[in-house]
Write a structure and sequence with these properties.
Length: 91
């Protein structure tokens, strides 16, 4: 088993052969048909169905889907706010 590394590939172009998978909810990123199109995140089953491929054996890159990324940032922000709140109360 490969070990998962948590991290966001920000601004780094993902190889066309790599399939981006959300490390939180397991959704995979749909291929873009139009330049500038927003990312679409779909289930593995939907991906296989849509492109007629088997995901097993394909190289994956682990990232956050748009939903989990927003959720993650939200949590980071609120935990930071909570920390600064505590710091203020302590100080
Ligand atoms: Zn996700």
């Amino acid at each position: 088993m490969a070990t998962f590394r948590l991290g966001v590939n920000h601004g780094r172009p993902v190889e066309a052969s790599l399939i981006a998978m959300c490390c939180v909810c397991g959704l995979v990123r749909a291929r873009k048909t139009v330049d500038g199109e927003a990312d679409r995140w779909i289930s593995k089953r939907a991906y296989e169905h849509m492109y007629g491929v088997r995901l097993v054996g394909n190289p994956f890159t682990h990232t956050y889907c748009s939903g989990c990324h927003a959720d993650f940032m939200q949590r980071m922000r609120s935990s930071r706010q909570a920390l600064s709140h505590l710091a203020k109360r302590a100080g």
